[in-house]
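Priority: medium. Attachment 1 of 2:
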């Protein structure tokens, strides 16, 4: 039995060419889809880490207590020291949430080195707090608010026909902000409102 093989079969060549075009188009779409998924994973990771770090920093600040308060100090003298202790506790908590990534920055307080510490001591203004976070509904409850930020640099910036989407600055970064407010749990002796 002899088989006649034709090298120039037009139907077979069209079929192979069509399959090659389909594979090329499918591979291109698959690469784009994978890059978008990688960007989405990085964004979700950054948002999750910022949320976790902010919650832990606010909790640490609310539970902080001034170690060895000055003897015979009044509440108005202790309040700024307690606010500093809360700020230190929040910073240490954020330090434990370092990310060490090329795409996600470490969580940081926003504005830098500031928390909103309010213990309802009359006549005191520790002056280390500025935050856009409103106080709790019952304003006579002592509270602390912490706002953190994380900068994200996308692994693959999204570019559709020359227009760049999700571009957030000169370095192609996106910034996530998160705020938490907790009641003060451990007021120092003599600082009850």
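Attachment 2 of 2:
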């Amino acid at each position: 039995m002899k088989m006649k093989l034709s090298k120039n079969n037009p139907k077979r060549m069209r079929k192979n060419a069509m399959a090659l075009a389909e594979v090329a188009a499918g591979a291109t779409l698959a690469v784009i889809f994978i890059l978008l998924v990688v960007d989405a994973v990085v964004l979700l990771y950054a948002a999750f880490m910022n949320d976790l770090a902010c919650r832990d920093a606010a909790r640490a600040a609310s539970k902080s207590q001034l170690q060895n308060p000055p003897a015979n100090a009044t509440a108005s003298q202790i309040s700024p020291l307690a606010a500093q202790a809360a700020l230190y506790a929040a910073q240490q908590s954020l330090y434990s949430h370092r990310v060490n990534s090329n795409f996600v920055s470490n969580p940081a307080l926003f504005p830098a080195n500031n928390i909103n510490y309010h213990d309802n001591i009359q006549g005191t203004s520790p002056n280390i707090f500025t935050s856009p976070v409103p106080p709790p509904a019952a304003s006579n409850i002592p509270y602390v608010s912490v706002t953190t930020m994380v900068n994200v640099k996308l692994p693959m910036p999204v570019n559709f026909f020359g227009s760049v989407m999700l571009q957030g600055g000169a370095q192609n970064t996106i910034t996530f902000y998160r705020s938490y407010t907790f009641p003060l749990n451990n007021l120092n002796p003599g600082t009850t409102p």
